[in-house]
Structure formats: structure tokens, C-alpha cells
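Take a record.
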Amino acid sequence: MKSGPVIQFAAFASSAEAVGVGPDGTVHYSTDAGATWTRKGKIHDTVQAVAAVNGQEAGPTIWAATASGLVLSTDGGVTFRPADAS
């Protein structure tokens, strides 16, 4: 059995592109349906849900519902900002 990161929330942006968020808010990204993962950034709040859509070269667009509100990443999970920020 392969080992990988502990994923608390996951979302598929396509059949192969997955985003996972660990209990500590660390964001992981997979391009092979979860067989291997790459660590990206971190959400600095309590994550309650996550959603993703197929992105461009930078990776998927990710939304995360947190205890403080909705946050958004447009760079594949490297950075997050409040979703209502311009």
C-alpha cells in the first residue's frame, strides 16, 4: 500500500486532477487521480469544505469554505485570498 498525505477534504477538478486539504490546512495537488501528491500552499483557517474546477497552466481554481468565510485560489492552491476580494 502506498503512503501519501492525510487528506480531510478532497475535490476533483477533472477525472485525473484532484485537490486535497489536510487537517492542518495544507493543500495537496494530484494530476494522477490521487496516486501521487504535491504539496502546494496552506489555508490558515479551519477548512469545512473544498471545491475545485479545472484550471489553466497554474492548476485548478480552488474554493474553500472556512470558519471565517469563503477563500479562493487561482494559482492551484499556492495562495488563497477571501473570495469576495477583488
